[in-house]
Structure formats: C-alpha cells, structure tokens
Amino acid sequence: MTNLVRDDIAQTEGYAPGEQPSDTTTIKLNTNENPYPPSPKALAAVAAIAANGAELVRRYPDPTARIFREEAAKLHGVPADWILTFNGGDDLLNVIIRTCAGEGDAVAFLEPSYSLYPVLTKIQAARPLVLSYDIAGTEWKLPAGIETTDAALLLIVNPNAPSGHFEPLERIESIAKNFRGVVLIDEAYINFANDSALPLVHKYSNIVILRSMSKGYSLAGLRFGYAIGQASLLKELVKVRDSYPCDVVSIAAATAALADQEYARSTWSSVCSERERLYSALEALGFSMPRSHSNFLLAEVPAGASAERIYHELKSRSILVRWWNLPRLAARVRITVGTKEQNDKLLAALQDILSSASSN
Ligand SMILES: Cc1ncc(COP(=O)(O)O)c(C=O)c1O
Q1: Closest ligand 1 atom, CA of 114?
Q2: Phi and psi of 233, rounded to 5°?
C-alpha cells in the first residue's frame, strides 16, 4: 500500500476514536457525551423531516445553514456572518489547519490536549509545535511565552481536555493580542464552564472560537459544530470547507436544540452538580484530580493502584472510561460525568476494584 499513498500518510498512525460499543447497556463514560437526551424540540425537528421531508432530502441542503446561523447569531450577540457551520467541531479543526498552515508551517498546540491536533497537522504536512502544560500536582497552567511562539496557528482547548482545567481569560487575551497567527479557542466543553472567550472575538480579528453541538446539546450522533469569529477570517474558511458540510437533518435539529436554551441549561446544571458529587466521592476513594470546568474528570489513581488495570477492570464490568498509555497521563483515567445512576455504579465498581487490589 505504501506506493499508492503519500509516504507520510502511510507512516502516520491516524486518530484513535474512543470505543463506541453497539449495545446500549454499557455505561459509556469514555467520550464525553452529555448523559441526558437532546431537547425534545430537536427530536421533533428530526421527526418532522422523516415524516414529510422527501423534497428536503431530495435537494441539497442550504450551504450557508442560514437558519442555524441566525439562531446562533442571536444567542451570541454577533452578526450572522460571524458564524460558520461544520460537520462537527472536528471538521472545523481540519479546515482551519488547512486554511492557515501550508506545508512545513508550524501549528502550535498544548500537550496534553486533544490528540486529534497532531494528527490533522501531520496530514496537512504542516509542522507540529508542541507546547507543554505546566503541571504541578492537580494544578495545570499554560506555559510562559506562548504569546511569542512562531506559528501560523495556535490551538488551545479551554476548558482543557483531558484535564477540565480552565485557563483564565486574561491569559487567553494576552495570547490573542501578541500571537502572530490565528488562535483557535476550542470551546467544545464550554457549556459546563462559567465563562467563555466569546467577548474577545469583538476585539481580535485573529480569534476563532470552536463550538460543538455534541456535548452541551446532546447531538454527538448528528455531527454539527460551528465557528464564531470575524467575517473577514471566516470567509477564508468557506473556500476550504465542503460545499455542503451540514445536512438538512443536522441543520434542523441543531437549530431547534440551540433555540431551546432552557432545556439545554437544565442538562448542564445537572451535569455540573453530578460532577461536583463525583469529584468528592472519587477524592474519598483516594483519587486526586484538577477541579473540572467540563463534563469529565481526569482522576489520578490512588498510590499503589494501576490506572491501566482499573480501566480494564471497569471494562470487564461494562463500564467504559478513557485511559491513555502516554507519559503524563498513564497514571490517570478520564471519566465522563454520567447520570446519577451511572455514577453510582461507577463508584461502587471502583470501590470494589480498589478493595480487591488491596486485599491481593
Ligand atoms: C477538545 C475537543 N475539541 C473538539 C471536539 C470535536 O467535537 P465534535 O466533532 O463532536 O463537534 C472534541 C470531541 O471530542 C473535543 O474533545
């Protein structure tokens, strides 16, 4: 196969998505979905297309997703041409890297953060420039000097994945002000935080904010995300993205879900209160972790325990969490906040696993 494709593609690993079991009984705490269903209005929008949408499905969708852009513009207090829609946030990441970084140009991102960033950078034949988080115990901090990094594009996920740590906006602003290229602030998990970099898009033409409908709005299965940024920059992304990145069903459902803020907010508040309960319960079991502003916790396992073993033991009990065999993550598991019942089952399983390990 190596002769048929680019050598660098043949040699790259590609992105490894989290496991997606086909059954619905597994307790799935591994890919940060919202544990609550989407707004009934979003489901009704899907049903309406299924019931009488033959003509809608026969035709191409609106390439501008106008109804969604107008809804998002109203919500975020920006003009509609400051919103651009994508086939999930991942699609925006792909497009922004292709738009900003030519072959050999540097794309800077943090480590540990979203493991898709290096993969997309390499596929573009751009140069990954890896910046390391300062981690001291459970405290995570962006390293000094990012502001003057020489790169075409900087990707910062805030709240961070996989830690859930939230970088103060003063620091994000200082970076946007001084960085020479485009700064993408990946706010895939922002609905579980108290603040957002949104006000900065009015001041800085080099900021693009990524939003996802997968987590906060429970629409991971539909694939819908969007960018918020000044029109002068977004119009360049339009040239690079697919002509029709979002289909009629996802546009209708995402618009209805975004419009139903009351429902979405009720799920965020349930997730956040469960997150705090889970934090305390995990701490009582001996785990330590940063305070999370997201819908997951990055839990360092108690002294003497093995994160890899805990991951496998949970999996054998049909509970999936995420574990990476990477230097700064191998002693931790990332746990998506589930419903109260799911979290209770997780905690009971962890208690059992830890006590059987200590009696061995
Ligand atoms: C940090 C981060 N950014 C972006 C995304 C993209 O989300 P989606 O493509 O589902 O909108 C994810 C999904 O897991 C993520 O973790």
Answers
A1: 1
A2: -85, -40
Q: Which amino acid is at 134?
A: D
Q: Tell me if 163 CB under 6 Å of ligand 1.
A: no
What distance in angstroms lies between residue 306's CA and the mean position of ligand 1's atoms? 28
Give the count of beta carbons closer than 10 Å to the beta carbon of residue 33. Answer: 18
Are 256 and 267 found together in one domain? no
- Of the three residues 225, 242, 260, the one that is the final residue of a domain is 260
Peptide bond preceding 159 in cis form (omega within 30 of 0): yes
pLDDT in single tens digits along all 360 residues of the chain: 558 999 999 988 899 888 898 888 999 999 999 999 999 999 999 999 999 888 899 999 999 999 999 999 999 999 999 999 999 999 999 999 999 999 999 999 999 999 999 999 999 999 999 999 999 989 999 999 999 999 999 999 999 999 999 999 999 999 999 999 999 999 999 999 999 999 999 999 999 999 999 999 999 999 999 999 999 999 999 999 999 999 999 999 999 999 999 999 999 999 999 999 999 999 999 999 999 999 999 999 999 999 999 999 999 999 999 999 998 999 999 999 999 999 999 999 999 999 987 655
- What range defines the domain where residue 14 resides? 7-30+262-359
Asked if residue 35 is part of any domain, the answer here is no
Asked if residue 270 and residue 247 are part of one domain, the reply reads no
**Based on the domain organization, do 17 and 119 belong to the same domain?**
no
Q: Which residue has the tokens 């970088």?
A: 167
What would the two tokens of residue 3 be?
């002769």
